[in-house]
Design a protein that fits this description.
Helices cover about 35% and strands about 25% of the residues. The strands form 3 sheets. Strands 1, 2, 5, 6, 9, 10, 11 and 12 form an 8-stranded antiparallel sheet that branches. Strands 3-4 form a two-stranded antiparallel sheet. It is extended, with a radius of gyration of 39 Å.
Length: about 425
């Protein structure tokens, strides 16, 4: 009878080999994912400007069609289209006839159907002079540098960024060109009692190099403060802007103010609040903005011109413009009073005088100089009044002393 012998267990070589293969396969997968992320997400080629512009224009058109009724270019918060114009009941100031849109067009000999688009050469010259003066004023005392530094380092700056330093500013050398101006009714379907409202549309094109360069540091505060610091340099240049500008006028209107619950208030319960005449402008959704972004990330091993950073900056710039002045959103600017006033008059005096007591050789006084003279004249009259009051009190005391003593003594005589 043979005794069975216990054989030793076999070494688990197959399980160890499976663990090693899994570890190597996992590390290789992570490396492949990181490489693909760096290649396609960070260093991937951005789409062409034409493709990007057409895609953005299509998205804006769809958004404009969805919100066209609620956000029209001529929809005013003051509901100016529904306000009724109250004419004066006086017999001296005669009420003019109601001016509707067709009457205005007929009196100005403008036919929106057959009138040819106009060139705006004279307007381009005025805009160019204004921009040139703005650029000249911006370079005086580095005012624009101080303003941009304060804005970039304001309360909206994220906490993970250090102080932002402006390294480059270029306001450009060319000017926008406006052309192909035409006037036509507003296409929002809202027709008031005066007829369809009008708006002017013109093409604008600017090819220039407007640059802003900044430097900052990205601070990593996790898991502890100042764990890592990454220097970043960025320069954004606007190369070209083209689009269609829409301009319309929003007339002034009077509306009752909100009801006041304070019974003891001396103000009327329903005062009229007047909305001033304003100019509304916006760009059509098919505008084009070409931006050139240069970036430099790192201190020793630097990464230059990362395409993904350029796309993020360009998308943020487009979003900033879309949220402010692209239809259906508009910008409203209140217009000042154009009624001629004496205090706004500048220039040499007329030979016959101005009829207000000014001689022909007397220069036109500035408003501030006139106010200063009025203050000095008021002070002089107040000083003379105090002197006369003090002299009157002394004279009264002298006559009262005469009445009490029974005689009048000459000043400077010795007492008896």
């Amino acid at each position: 009878m043979t005794t069975p012998t216990n054989t030793p267990p076999a070494t688990p070589q197959q399980s160890s080999l499976s663990f090693t293969e899994g570890l190597l396969l996992g590390q290789l997968s992570v490396v492949i994912l990181i490489g693909a992320f760096i290649k396609f997400f960070i260093f991937g080629d951005p789409p062409s400007p034409e493709t990007t512009a057409s895609t953005r224009a299509l998205a804006r058109r769809s958004q404009d069609a969805a919100h066209k009724r609620s956000f029209s270019i001529n929809s005013s918060p003051s509901a100016a289209s529904k306000a009724e114009v109250r004419f004066s009941s006086s017999n001296v100031l005669r009420n003019p006839p109601r001016l509707t849109t067709p009457i205005i067009l007929s009196k100005t000999y403008y036919n929106v159907d057959v009138h040819q688009p106009e060139s705006l050469d004279w307007f381009n010259v005025l805009i160019a002079q204004t921009i040139a003066q703005f650029r000249t004023d911006a370079h005086q005392d580095e005012a624009i540098l101080t303003s941009l530094t304060n804005v970039l380092n304001g309360a909206q700056k994220p906490d993970f960024l250090s102080s932002i330093k402006v390294t480059e500013i270029s306001l450009g050398e060319d000017f926008p060109i406006f052309s192909n101006c035409r006037v036509h009714p507003v296409e929002d379907g809202s027709t008031g009692p005066d007829g369809a409202k009008l708006q002017a549309r013109m093409d604008v094109d600017l090819s220039d190099l407007i640059t802003l360069g900044v430097e900052t540091k990205i601070i990593l505060n996790w898991p502890k403060p100042l764990t890592a610091i990454l220097p970043v340099a960025l320069a954004v240049s606007i190369v070209r802007f083209s689009g269609t500008l829409s301009i319309s006028f929003l007339p002034s209107a009077s509306h009752p103010a909100p009801f006041s619950n304070n019974a003891n208030s001396a103000l009327p319960q329903h005062p009229l609040s007047t909305t001033p005449t304003s100019l509304a402008f916006s760009f059509l959704p098919d505008y084009r903005l070409d931006v050139n972004v240069r970036s430099l990330v790192g201190s020793r091993s630097r990464l230059q011109d990362i395409p993904k950073i350029a796309q993020m900056v360009e998308n943020r710039l487009h979003a900033w413009i879309d949220e402010r002045c692209v239809e259906p959103r508009v910008q409203q600017v209140a217009l000042p009073s154009l009624w001629p006033r004496k205090k706004n008059t500048r220039g040499p005096p007329s030979e016959e005088g101005d009829g207000l007591g000014l001689r022909a050789t007397e220069p036109v006084r500035d408003v501030r100089e006139e106010a200063r003279r009025e203050v000095e004249e008021e002070r002089r009259r107040d000083r003379e009044y105090r002197e006369r009051e003090a002299a009157g009190m002394a004279e009264g005391l002298r006559w009262r002393s005469k009445a009490e003593g029974g005689g009048y003594e000459m000043p400077g005589t010795m007492p008896i």
